[in-house]
Amino acid sequence: MRSNRSRLDRFISQHQQLPRKQIRLLVAQGAVTVDGVVARDVAMQINQFSHICLHDEVLQAQQPVYLMQHKPVGVVSATVDDKHQTVLDLIDHQDKQQLHIVGRLDLNTSGLMLLTNDGQWSKRLMAPEHKVAKRYRVTLQNPLNDDYVEAFAQGMYFEYEDIVTQPAQLEIIDTTSAIVTLTEGRYHQIKRMFGRFRNPVIGLHRFAVGNLVLDDSLQVGQSRMLSADEVSQI
Ligand code: URA
User: Ligand 1: does its nearest atom lie under 6 Å from the Cβ of 199?
Assistant: First the structure.
């Protein structure tokens, strides 16, 4: 089931190639269950994770999956790619073909990647209005100074998109390294922002998204499932 919410009768009609009239009859006979409960309303709203049975046949039984991965440099944030290994290639999960990535990282960026089959969750996380913080450790070629902090906080005009970036936080850690917190994800955003100072980024690692911090115990390339609390608290 592609879209996240649908009417029960529409789902069964598409799935079983049956007319709606017949579905009304089946529901009236108590032949349809949703999440183990007999359905009484053909118009009830279901989603991609509703467990749906017609008589004893399971029509839909997809479990939500949420993963964090420690993405290595050199692996592409995509589900298929002709040239490079993808983040999906590194995952060992029976339903991995249903997963999508939640926000891209560049090929040469490492760190916290999120993958899920729950489109509502990823949409919420990525929605600009929710301003979920993404935190990066950045290593620069040249020394930093306080002008950077000011410029990141002010926002920068990106001509291609015709936007001013949201205020970003830059904490200088030492001469050539910093922590940057963004609440959006423009194309190559961090590299472009340091590019304004003609200061190339030579290392970029995302270590947190919202409340979710990349596990120290997660080796480069490894993934793990998120707990229910992590999924709801991010
Ligand atoms: N900004 C970048 O420039 N690259 C990333 O991968 C993420 C943020």
Answer: no
